[in-house]
Amino acid sequence: MRTIKRFMATILILLIIILASLGYSAAVEGENIEYNPDNIKQARENWDVKNVKLFESESEIEIERAYSGGSTAIGKILSGEVRWDAQEKTLTVQPKGEKKAQFLFVSSPERIDVEAEKITLAIKGENKKRIFNVKVDKGIISLTQEKQTYKIECKDECKLELNADIGESYYEEKLLNSYIAKIDINGEGEISKKDSEENLKIFNLKDTTMAYADDELDFVLDAVAYSSDSMIGELGLNSCLTVCSPVIYGQQEKLTVIGQNFKVYNAPDNTLFVPEDDISTIKFGDKRNDILEIRGDSEIIYSTSGCKGKDKTCVSIGNEVEIAPIKTGQKLEIRYFPTLSKNLRIGKIKNDETVRVMQDNGYGQMTFSKSEVEIVSSNIPWYEFDTSFTAEPYLPNKKDYGTLICNINTQKCTLDGNEIQGPTELGAKSCKADKDCDSGKCHYDQKIDSGFCVQENKCKELEGTPQKGPINVVIIAPYDQYKNEIGDVTKIKAKAQEGVNKMFAIDPYSKSKGKFSFSFLKTEVENMEIFNNKDGGVDYLLEKRNELCPSAEIVIGMIDIGGRSFALQNENVVVFYKHSAKNKEDWYPFTFVHEISHIFGLADEYMDTEEVSHFEYKIGPNCIASLGKKTVEERAAEVWSKLLGNKAGNSLAQKAAANGYYGCGGCANECLRFLRPSENSIMNNQWEVGGQDFNSPSIEHIKDKLKVVG
Amino acid sequence: MRLILILVLAAVMIPFASASELLYSIKLDTSDNLELLEVKLVEGEMPYQLSDYVENYEAKAVSFKGEELQVVNLTISDFAYDAGEPVKASVKYLLLRYFANGKSVTLYNTEGNELLEIDVSQFSRCNEDEVCDFNENVKSCALDCTEEEVREREVEASFGEETPAAEEEAGTNRGGLKAGPYWPYILALALALAIALAFIIQARKK
Fold first, then answer.
1. CA-CA distance, A175 to A189, in Å (whole number)?
2. Shortest Cα distance, chain A CAs vs residue B190, angstroms
3. How many CB atoms lie within 10 A of CB B161?
4. b or e along A246-278 (b: 16 or more beta carbons within 10 Å of the residue's beta carbon)?
5. Cβ–Cβ of B50/A612 closer than 8 Å?
6. Considering CB atoms only, which of B48, B93, B166 is closest to A546?
7. Full pLDDT tens readout for chain B, 206 residues
């Protein structure tokens, strides 16, 4: 009973802690509205603020940005109540009246744009309102609200006033040549000819600031960042509709659609829908990436000219629709439906622009950038996109743009007339189960509720060897498909097992079986000659590991030709040749143990011949060099004492020096300076007496290294 | 009693015990300057650093917001034991943990100079732009997605031309146990509850 009570009490305490945390965070959230540079950065990205400077004094902010009028201005907020905490990197705006404004945008000394909904939230928590035409003399100190007017008062020297036009009757009129566009606060408006009662167009542009039409009845709708619900009536023949999404708007670029008799409706998610019998569905992202959805059997053209000859980049669909949205650093996503677009033409792309074409299911993407065409779609080839495409990538070698043509019918691509392979694949296909993946393996990550097609891990356990440990060792047996018989591979496998078993018969590995797992793979190789070149052999083994068993810590190649076995510690690779001058039998198992021990940092305890004396040597815990003012003997005593304890370490150093165990590290004359712990060991001459065990510093060192895996 | 507690713990941990991670596998050309050859996702565990050689490069994964996600040290060297000559692999494979919001992996030398920036954003499931993009969801990208947005997107997607096959697939994947690796959690939870119940009954008997 007491246990139950304890159990219940624990649950209760946990609940209290959770509730307290929630309550605390809610309280904090309600009390403070804080800025930090990331918020400013986010604002910059949303609004295309050109430059934001945060001075590290308490009171100055300088914000420069491009705004709707197309001009750029600098404004300043100067106030002791604007606090910039350089240490915490937070910026707090504290208007008069103890309330904090969340967003303050300054566009010029004469004008300030305040994101009204945030201010009203900060001040009163009232419904969202809009503010237009705010005038500011010099700066801003505090915000107060009086009826429908917001006043911003400077603390010392200036007076500011925010005139909030919150009402039903507000109209903004824009006269353009012979046309007038009107829009009210709800975004509803009309366009008519000057001096005419006849409304040519009726539209709804909720939350937009202006609309106008030019001589050719081109409509320009400058939708501000908060645009959420805009609608335009039918456009006439050859009329052109330009809609500026927030980002494009900031960049002074227009998104232009020319079409016949179609309706465009900017829905709450900033999506423009077009009837199915017409050209396209256009979807604007409301942040950095704008998405254009295209329905209709149209040709898509992306070019650097067009749009009535204006010097800007644009995408056009067939002869009828032009999209001119992107500028340096921006991204346009084109989402299309496979039954529709048949030819995609991408013109020259400058700088870091990208155009992304997505499959309707969201899985497949083609991304065009200055010099690259990428298929970001997992395992499908480019022609699965059901479209031919032409692009003009910049070719660095040529220092000019080339012409890339990929034809859906022939499924071939040419670059400047020469046939090339299709675009390389990038990214990873999304999946929910193995059956979704050509690779046969779907890695589903529960934490992020997403799956990715990954290559199948083809590590196969080496029977009769440890399998449960965290250190994965993959033994690769390359065989010449034309020469080797399967029997040879079987023999190699047996030799691998022998090597592993020998390893685990020797201290310290004998006590660490549980820390290893061994796998074995036979891999085809066109010609075993590649292993006569050490570099090439290592490349092969690394490639095979990556392809078949990518997260294996150690790779051991058992090479069915003669050679001098070696180990690359920084790559954790052992190349284990069948024969060498010293090998007395095929794949001598003690050499296997010798080489794998290099991976853990043991040095060679032998000296080599003059021929290789120029080569770099490497010392280790079992091969000691002098260090600074310390003699080699003193240094040996120091290193070995750390491994074995003071008494044993000092004693071993004295014994090694007395017995003249000088010479190790694998080089020639210069290695005579170094001191090793024993006359012979497995790291020295494993073919002679005493060469089939480790000396005590080596044992302790490996034990230490194996501690990292628990 | 202790045995029961251990069993409960073990049951809860079953789904996590054998889980391998998703990793970026980055293939670099080291023959001249460092150049990127390939980036892909693989399944496995982050390898252990087995030796204490001196690392001369650092690879740092960062998020879209510039946050440091993981730092891995690496060595590129031509030293080989027993080879009698320098041996240099012309490629270097680098493994880093996968992050849904991973944007890039940058390589630095020991002086801290940037050598190469590798874009891994094509694998991301969270670009931290506060827009719930098509491959983001609430779990992979709480910053960009709300439950409501994801629902809206699904409704929007349903307006598309969904084939019967796709519908069938969607049904099987979203509904039943085939959907994903949920069932081990459900089983573990059921087991844990059963053992906890037994534990309470036993305590009452005492």
1. 13
2. 19
3. 11
4. bbbbbbebbbbbbbeebebbbeeebbbbbeeeb
5. no
6. B93
7. 554 544 444 444 433 334 578 899 998 888 777 888 888 888 888 888 776 666 688 899 999 888 999 998 888 888 888 887 888 888 888 899 999 889 899 999 888 888 888 888 778 888 787 777 656 788 888 888 887 776 766 665 454 333 333 333 333 222 222 223 344 556 667 777 777 777 777 777 66
Contact B204 A433 (CB under 8 A): no
Residue A700 CA to residue A612 CA, distance in Å, equals 30
- Quick one: tokens of A537? 């052999």
Using alpha carbons only, what angle is made at residue A609 by residues A604 and A610, rounded to the nearest 5 degrees? 130
User: Quick one: how far is CA A555 from the chain centroid?
Assistant: 29
Strands (E), chain B: 21-29, 35-44, 57-63, 68-74, 91-97, 102-109, 114-119
Cis peptide before A338 (omega within 30 of 0): no
Note whether B139 contacts A: Cβ–Cβ < 8 A. Answer: yes
Copy the structure tokens of residue A225: 């960042």
Torsions phi, psi for A515 (to 5 deg): -95, 0
- Model pLDDT for residues A643-652, shown as the tens digit of each residue: 999 999 999 9
d(CA B97, CA B123): 12
Residue from B42, B64, B65 to probe the interface with A (highest A Cβ count within 10 Å): B42
DSSP for residue A475: E
Chain-chain contact of B41 with A443 (C-beta, under 8 angstroms): yes
Residues 6+ apart with CB under 8 A from B88: A535, A538, B30, B77, B78
In the structure, how many helices (H) and strands (E) does chain B have? 4, 7
Cα separation, A676 vs A660, whole angstroms: 9
Of the candidates A532, A539, A602, the one whose C-alpha atom is nearest the C-alpha of residue A569 is A602
Name the amino acid, one letter, at A295. Answer: R
CA dihedral sign of residues A124, A125, A129, A135: positive
Min distance A298 CA to chain B CA atoms (Å):
18
Question: Which chain B residues are Cβ-neighbours of A454 within 8 angstroms?
Answer: 22, 40-43
- Find, in chain A, the residue whose alpha carbon is nearest to that of B182: A446
Which of B41, B126, B200 has the CB atom closest to A428's CB atom? B41
Among B residues 76-135, those touching chain A with beta carbons less than 8 Å apart: 76-77, 79-93, 95, 98, 100, 122-123, 125-126, 129-131, 133-135
Enumerate residues 6+ apart whose C-beta is below 8 A from A305: A311, A314, A347
Residues within 8 A of A (CB atoms), B 141-180 only: 141, 152, 156-157, 160-161, 166, 173, 178-180
- For A581-610, the pLDDT digits (tens) are 666 678 889 999 999 999 888 999 988 776
